[in-house]
Amino acid sequence: MRLVKYLAHAGVASRRAAERLIVAGRVSVDDQIVNDPARDVSESASVAVDGRPVSGAERRVTYALNKPVGVLSTAQDERGRATVLGLVPAQGLRLYPVGRLDADSSGLILLTNDGELANRLTHPSFEVPKTYCATLLGGALGERALRALREGVQLDDGPTAPALVRRTGEREIELTIHEGRNRQVRRMCEAVGHPVAELRRVRFGPLTLDGLREGEHRLLSGEELQRLRAL
After folding, report:
1. pLDDT for 72-86, tens place per residue?
2. Which pTM does this prediction carry?
C-alpha cells in the first residue's frame, strides 16, 4: 500500500493533507524519514508521524455537524479557540473536518477519519455541490447581480464556474457551487456589489441540515456514506 494511502486509512489526515506531511519530512517508515508519498508500505512496517507511531487502519466514521458561528473548522487551534472537534465525540479516533467553513459562517460540515472519502469530497475533479443560504448587504438584489453569479464571477484567483442561484427574499439568495476556494461565496457576492451579512451552508452533496439544530451532530448511516461515495 502506498504511504499516503496508509496514512489516510489510518485516519491521520486526508490524502492531500497526508501528502503534505510526507513531503515536509514529518513521516518516517522503520525509523527513516520518507518524502515520497508513493512509497510502498507493508503491513509490518513501523510508521510514525512527528515521532508518534501510527497504528494502522482504524474504524471509519463520518459525522455531520451543524457548525455555529465562531467555531473554527480545523482540528486544533494554537490560540485555544473553539474548534469543530470539540462538538463531536471523537472516542479516541483521529477526526478532521472535510473542507472548510469560515469561522463567521455556520451550517453543515462533515468530520471523518476516512481519508479516501475526504479526498473524494474535496478534490475539484469530483465537483461535489455545496449549497448556501446568504443574507446580503447593499440593497435589493437586482437581476444583473443574479446573472453575474449564475454565469461566473471574476475573482483575483480567476473566474468562478457558473453557480445555481435563486432569490429567496429581497436580500436573500440560495447559491450552489461545486468549487472550494477560500471564502468563495463571500468573495463572489462582494464582487457583484452585495457583501455577505450572514452565511449558512445547508447542503453538502446529498446531505442536508434536516433535524440538526445548531451545535448538534449525528453519525452518518451506511446508506448516506454510499451516496457520498457515489458522487
Report:
1. 998 888 888 999 999
2. 0.77
Q: What single DSSP character describes residue 125? A: G
Give the burial string for 102-123 (b: 16+ CB within 10 Å, else e): bbebbbbbbbbbbbebbbbbbe
CA distance 46 to 31: 7
State which residues form the domain around 159: 129-204
Percent of the chain with pLDDT over 70: 98
Select which of 40, 102, 156, 157 is catalytic.
Answer: 102
CA distance 37 to 35: 6
CATH number of the domain where residue 179 is located: 3.30.70.1560
Under a CB-based contact definition with an 8 Å cutoff, are residues 38 and 82 in contact?
A: no
Residues 196/134, Cβ–Cβ less than 8 Å = yes
For 144-166, the pLDDT digits (tens) are 999 999 999 999 999 999 999 99
Spatial contact of 187 and 179, defined as CB atoms under 8 Å apart: no
Q: Do residues 223 and 112 both lie within one domain?
A: yes
Q: For 217, what's the count of Cα atoms within 13 Å in the CB-facing half-sphere? A: 20
Contacts made by residues 157-161, CB under 8 angstroms, sequence distance 24+? 157/181, 160/184, 160/188
Task: Indicate the number of domains in the chain.
Answer: 3
Same domain, 50 and 73: no
Q: Is 77 a catalytic residue?
A: no
